[in-house]
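User: I'm new to structure prediction. If I give you an amino acid sequence, what do you actually give back? Let's try with this one:
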Amino acid sequence: MLLRYTLQNLLRHAWRTLATVFGIAIGIAAVLATVTVGDNINANLARVFGTAAGRAELILAPGAGERAVLEARRAEAVARATPGVVATLATLEYYAVLRDEAERYQRPVVPGVQGGFLLSGQDTSRPQDLPVRLASGRFPRAGSNGIAVSQAFASREGLSEGSRLRLVGPLGELSFTVTGTLAADAGLANLNAGQVGVVNLSDLQKATFLEGRVSYLGLILARGSDAERVRADLERHLPAEFSVLYPAGRGQVSNGLVQTVQSGLQVLAATLMALAGFLAYNTFAAAVVERQREFALLRTLGFTRAQVLRMGYLEAATVSALGIVVGIGLGAGLSAAITFVNALLLEFPFVTLTLPWDKLLLAAAVGTVTALVAASGPARAASRVAPVVAAREAYVAGTRTPYLLGLLLLIAGLAAALWRPPREYALPVASIAMALVFVGIALVAPALIPATGRVLGRPLRALLGLPGRLGIDFASRSRGRNGVAVGAVALGLGLIVGVGGMVSGINDSLRRWVDTTIVGDMFVAAAAPFPADFKARLSRTFPELSEVSAVSVRVARFRPPGGRARNASVILTDPERYDPRRGSGQLQFLPGQGSLEATSDAFYRGRGVYVSGTIADRYGTYRGSTLELRTSRGWLPFRVLGVVVDYTSAGESVIGNLGDLELFGGGRPELYVLSVRPGVEAQAVGARLKRVFPELFLDVQYNRPYKDLILNVTGQFFGTTHALLAVAVFVAALGVANTLGMNLAERMHEMAVLRALGLTRGGLTRAIIAEGVLVTVLGTVLGLLAGAALGQTITAAANSLTGYRVAPSYPPGLFLTALLASPLIGVLAALLPARRASRLQPARALRASEEA
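Assistant: Good question. You get back a string of structure tokens that encode the predicted 3D arrangement of the chain. For your 852 residues, that looks like this:
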């Protein structure tokens, strides 16, 4: 009987039911999207690199330096001696640039990421083992100097079988004949945004003077073998020149960027968990308040307290179940959209959507628990009050206890927001703090509505006339329910200010890092390799240059004290660049963690490094400690000279002396930083550089455009937060509209009397709009104050997750946007309820109120 009555009630109040379901669904969708987007990005990257490795479950790679190569026979011997390995797949990778595009070539901004066209040398005599599939033609045979290119690349360049493909690489010009095309949905063809070609392994080895060398060796394991056990066995006995990793580990720099995005989204997920709970509280609690008179009538008809209580819980469970179904669908779509955007930024194909069961259960639990909690308070109160008293006090907006409770919750939430918990507790504390702050606002807000009405009374009367005064009276008499709407607005705008403050703080920190670290007038890269004497030739030929510094970036393994080996970007530079007496380079040292004056001499000597604050915080490698790096001579200790701010590769980076380059695979620098003397125009020097070194196909970036490019690239990774914040504001408006709609249902008799006394439809519309504006303005003021605390909380949590030193920043435009949006949200939220009320005939309203 209770279930049938619950379903009938939900169908009778279809608009309210839909609003409640949608509110819960939006919260669940936001939580599900944010907690699964990192899984989806990593799953797609793992799929790309996994399929690019073919049947290989593990990769035997160089021990230090991503550009180093392996001696194929020695690598084969190591692999064959490992239990569980039954076969190997040798690959040689080589990056080049299209000859026709060499003069326009621009090196990627992200350090450590290769650019151009990827040549993949494979044993084409074993097509069944290749990590690619032909779409047309054939694979190139040994000695044919042929190439099979991806379908996408062939279509873009107008290539067909027999076409010549001319490239410029670090060792000079290369020329191949197209023998076929690669299917776009398989393996290697998905790498490097489709700019991929398969060449016979022996042909590529000859063309690059790397006979007997490979970039990595794929390990095919026996059926039933445990890949992690094989990896651990290899890691324990592996010679120093090798490392072993999973195929997805090849995307080290990309994974670093994903880690940054995922850390930010984890913080936002905690924020939106609080949003999901509060939205459920908002919509369902308001609905239960509306039905207090109905509960009183049921008690009069013989319902027991327990039955009334169970009915409230049953309705909450039904609505939350519907919200879970809708929310999971919305969450899957939102997660797919966010992953798709990041796939475009990171240039990998979006081919799979992952929704882990634990994340689905987490999102569903948020909706279910919060709906039941929201229903428990009003339902229990209604079940405990005598029927006559309940009927008489159906419109009473609460007692002093919720106000005092709200104040206590608000104080507790602010205290938690100011607390700096250990890293492992950062997210739970942030979520609890936000929940306490916004629930406290919802409970305190009713006490503030009359005072807000007095402040806004004159301007609203001036704008709307007598209906403005009626709207203020409406808001005051329904302040218990309007307090929930105030809380919804405060939450939505608080998220704008809080998350916006975090993003602004990160952008400010990035800008300071770029302005401090990216010092120099020109940044010069090349499609072809720099000659060994390039620096000396620059000094002789260009006397207008005041400084020439070489930079090389490698990816190497590092082993923190007592921890497991990981990858880090090793940025190797001339020590003269950071010489405080004559160099122009600068570093941002953390307080008490070194200075250039105190560490320059040790940096000159080599085997000393500056580590990022992220590495220092995560692994305890502060100034004076030792960090082990895997080099071509095995694991070697490097002294930590200082801790600096650095955002390269998600902050896991090390700055070392270029003199140690041979320890990390050798080779030549990939970048030169040039400074010109006072009065010299950098653009003129850059143009002359290109004329003097035409064979290098130089890419010259100038200071300001180069900095802007870096900031634009990094700023794009926070674009997904804006869509989620827009959802939060929309739901805040939905909460206001839902509350106003319930107020109208309660006031049918009063509206009928007002209409009978001569209040026009337009006047009634303006009165309801005035109520919406009052609720929204109060919510905005509280939201701005709470948003500042929220910004501190989520920024501290983000710092704990990433190891960065970021302080929230609140540009005036952020507050101005929130203030201007406030009345607009109120008006838009009130339009639908106001229109509905204005069309209701007085006689019909009286009948409806009598039936209620």
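You can read the tokens as a compact description of the fold. Here is one thing that stands out. The chain has four domains: 1-54+269-397, 55-245, 407-449+478-519+706-851, 528-696.
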